[in-house]
């Protein structure tokens, strides 16, 4: 038997829709998991709809419209000062290079702010309030994107909003399960699969509206998606635990020790030596994780340009918009995440399921290997001509399998290894590694039109494969240091 305080239980006075939903569905499971998992699943689905809807438009919006005309770019509030800072570091940049820099900085800072969002939840407001704050800020940012002059301020709102929302909703997935529950890794895979449903739909909706009717319509659709996510989270908040789920034995032990913490306020005590080892192990893995995301995020940067400039999107009498390429990755996640979960279950039953860190290493090897396909595309597709969409499809399928091996298992690793008093903060640190990786990805993307395409894709392949080898080498010493098999 397990239990956990919920939002509905925290406010027992008066009638509310979250209480009604909680009373109806509390203690129920769906496909072996708590209903709260699917509340978080749907909330993050719409958040990802908004994020990827905007991302699917961002690089081409800058490269083909906003920054293409210097006069238009100078109408953006703060752009002259911003461009001066960037060019003082990198020199004069083309529209493509400036677009890549802005993309890298934006996606990088999207993952810097979660460390502060985690600290805000740990020390001040708690997870629920931070999620509401983040969703509201993101919705405002998406609607501001409809106005060209507000472009940089819109990105700022989106960065701050994602920082408040992202680490806390991911942590709540882990809170649904007691320590040692084998379902936790698989819950993150389901969660990861669910949020990608939003990522599949968003380019189809936002790109189509943005290109066919005007950029502002596409960005506004992303804002509507974020508002829908907030409504779902509010209605299901009574099913989402505010603390990690505890077994009856855990609760009895807490009562014996008279160690009942106040709601949503972490215990204030110094970390033990063992807990510091756990922190440093996660820091080392965070540093290694950066390289994966530097290569992975090329799908929304340079591969999006390959999609628009070097790919034939004509099928018989149909023309598929190049922006729909952004749906390939999440569609593959939805198709293959459950199959991979079944495969891991089959391995587990035979005692052969790889540990989390080994899975992450496999993910990096797959990521690096995928770019050998793009090397072949660069060789066989003549310059200034368009090649088959299958080059992109095959590349994306391989690195998506790598993502499934690394990303959801990495989130699960943080919830298992991070010390309780720093759980949200360490989740923020994990997203910080995405930030540095995405920023580095923007720098790498600047070489897209400088190097030959074959050499550019070879560089990406090498980074991915070397990172995979490093994960394999780290597994044993880190497991020893924290006295836990990871």
What does this structure look like?
It is built from 18 helices and 6 strands. 74% of the residues lie in helices and 2% in strands. The protein has a single domain, classed as Growth Hormone, Chain: A, CATH 1.20.1250. By secondary structure, the protein is an all-alpha fold. The strands form 3 sheets. It has a two-stranded antiparallel ribbon. A two-stranded antiparallel ribbon has the order 2-3. Helix 6 packs antiparallel against helix 17 (423-445) and helix 12 packs antiparallel against helix 18. Mean pLDDT is 80; it is low at 1-13 and 258-266.
Question: What's the structural blueprint in terms of helices and strands?
Answer:
Elements lengths: L1 E2 L3 H4 L6 H9 L3 E2 L2 E2 H32 L3 H4 L5 H12 L4 H16 L2 H32 L6 H25 L7 H31 L1 H22 L9 E2 H10 L15 H24 L5 H9 L3 E2 L2 E2 L8 H22 L6 H25 L9 H28 L5 H23 L7 H30 L4
Antiparallel strand pairs: 1-4, 2-3, 5-6
Helix pairs in contact: 3-6, 3-8, 3-9, 3-10, 6-8, 6-17, 7-8, 7-10, 7-17, 8-16, 8-17, 9-10, 9-14, 9-16, 12-16, 12-17, 12-18, 14-16, 15-16, 15-18, 16-17
């Amino acid at each position: 038997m397990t239990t956990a305080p919920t939002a509905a239980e925290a406010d027992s006075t008066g009638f509310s829709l979250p209480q009604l939903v909680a009373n109806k569905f509390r203690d129920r499971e769906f496909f072996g998991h708590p209903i709260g998992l699917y509340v978080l699943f749907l909330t993050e689905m719409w958040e990802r709809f908004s994020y990827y809807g905007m991302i699917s438009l961002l690089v081409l919006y800058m490269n083909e419209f906003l920054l293409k005309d210097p006069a238009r770019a100078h109408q953006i509030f703060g752009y002259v000062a911003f461009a001066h800072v960037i060019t003082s570091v990198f020199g004069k940049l083309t529209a493509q290079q400036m677009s890549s820099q802005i993309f890298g900085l934006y996606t990088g800072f999207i993952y810097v702010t979660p460390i502060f969002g985690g600290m805000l939840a740990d020390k001040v407001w708690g997870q629920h309030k931070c999620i509401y704050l983040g969703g509201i800020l993101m919705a405002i940012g998406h609607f501001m994107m409809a106005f060209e002059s507000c472009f940089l301020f819109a990105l700022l709102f989106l960065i701050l909003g994602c920082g408040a929302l992202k680490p806390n909703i991911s942590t709540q997935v882990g809170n649904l399960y007691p320590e040692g529950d084998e379902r936790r890794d698989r819950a993150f895979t389901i969660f990861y699969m669910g949020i990608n449903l939003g990522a599949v739909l968003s380019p189809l909706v936002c790109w189509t509206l943005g290109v066919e009717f005007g950029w502002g319509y596409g960005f506004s659709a992303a804002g509507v998606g974020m508002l829908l996510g907030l409504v779902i989270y509010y209605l299901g908040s009574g099913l989402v635990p505010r603390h990690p789920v505890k077994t009856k034995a855990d609760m009895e032990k807490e009562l014996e020790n008279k160690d009942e913490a106040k709601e949503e306020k972490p215990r204030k005590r110094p970390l033990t030596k063992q807990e510091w080892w756990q922190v440093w192990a996660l820091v080392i893995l965070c540093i290694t994780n950066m390289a994966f995301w530097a290569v992975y995020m090329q799908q929304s940067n340079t591969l999006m340009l390959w999609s628009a400039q070097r790919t034939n999107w004509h099928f018989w009498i149909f023309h598929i918009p190049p922006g729909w390429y952004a749906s390939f990755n999440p569609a593959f996640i939805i198709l293959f995440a459950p199959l991979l979960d079944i495969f891991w279950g089959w391995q587990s039953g035979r005692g052969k399921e790889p540990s989390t860190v080994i899975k992450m290493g496999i993910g990096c090897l797959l990521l690096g290997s995928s770019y050998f396909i793009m090397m072949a595309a660069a060789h066989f597709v003549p310059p200034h001509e368009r090649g088959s969409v299958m080059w992109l499809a095959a590349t994306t399928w391989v690195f998506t399998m790598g993502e499934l091996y690394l990303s959801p298992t990495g989130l699960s690793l943080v919830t298992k290894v991070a010390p309780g008093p720093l759980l949200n903060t360490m989740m923020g640190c994990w997203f910080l590694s995405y930030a540095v990786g995405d920023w580095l990805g923007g720098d790498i993307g600047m070489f897209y039109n400088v190097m030959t395409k074959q050499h550019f894709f070879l560089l990406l392949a090498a980074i991915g494969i070397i990172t995979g080898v490093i994960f394999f080498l780290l597994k044993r010493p880190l497991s020893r240091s924290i006295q836990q098999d990871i």
